[in-house]
């Protein structure tokens, strides 16, 4: 089970113990706000809380280098967004699998 919009409310942290999700997806407002120094601390706390519960964190709609840097610094597990790749048909995966893996290795710490 995945929890969407993680970090949107104070209830988000409680869901880690209540539901024991397989993953959480950060709320878009959290991802968008990482350019602000104060919100970077909040992002770090959310990711750390999920990791402490053994839950991987996904960030979607990563669109800027500042967002990418902040999310990588906070050790987000999965990053998705236009900065990393434009959407493409599933049939292209076989043709581009090696390219995708190489690009992912270049982006991860």
Describe the secondary structure blueprint for this structure.
Layout lengths: L1 E5 L4 H9 L3 E4 L1 H5 L4 H16 L4 E3 L5 H9 L4 E2 L13 H15 L2
Parallel strand pairs: 1-2, 2-3, 3-4
Poorly predicted segments: none
How many runs of DSSP E, i.e. beta strands?
Answer: 4
| Rg over C-alpha atoms, rounded to the nearest angstrom | 14 Å
The main sheet comes to: 4 strands, parallel
Assign a percent range to the helix content: 40-55%
Q: What is the H/E order?
A: EHEHHEHEH
Shape: globular
Number of helical regions: 5
Q: Name the structural class.
A: alpha/beta
**What is the residue-mean pLDDT, rounded to a whole number?**
85
Strand order of the largest sheet: 1-2-3-4
The percentage of residues in β strands lies in 5-15%
Intertermini distance: 27 Å
Written account of the structure:
By secondary structure, this protein is an alpha/beta fold. It is 50% helix and 13% strand. It contains 5 helices and 4 strands.
Summarize the structure.
The chain has 109 residues and is of the alpha/beta class. It has helices at residues 11-19, 28-32, 37-52, 65-73, 93-107, and strands at 2-6, 23-26, 57-59, 78-79. It is globular, with a radius of gyration of 14 Å.
Which key terms come to mind for this protein?
alpha/beta, 4 strands, 109 residues, cyclic-guanylate-specific phosphodiesterase activity, single chain, EAL_sf, Bacteriophytochrome cph2
């Amino acid at each position: 089970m995945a929890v969407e919009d993680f970090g949107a409310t104070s209830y988000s942290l409680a869901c880690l113990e209540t539901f024991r999700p397989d993953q959480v997806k950060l709320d878009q407002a959290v991802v968008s706000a990482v350019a602000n120094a104060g919100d970077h601390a909040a992002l770090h706390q959310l990711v750390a809380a999920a990791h402490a519960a053994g839950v991987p964190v996904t960030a979607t709609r990563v669109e800027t280098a500042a967002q990418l840097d902040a999310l990588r610094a906070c050790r987000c597990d999965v990053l998705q967004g236009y900065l990393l790749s434009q959407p493409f048909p599933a049939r292209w995966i076989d043709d581009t699998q090696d390219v995708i893996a190489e690009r992912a290795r270049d982006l991860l710490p």
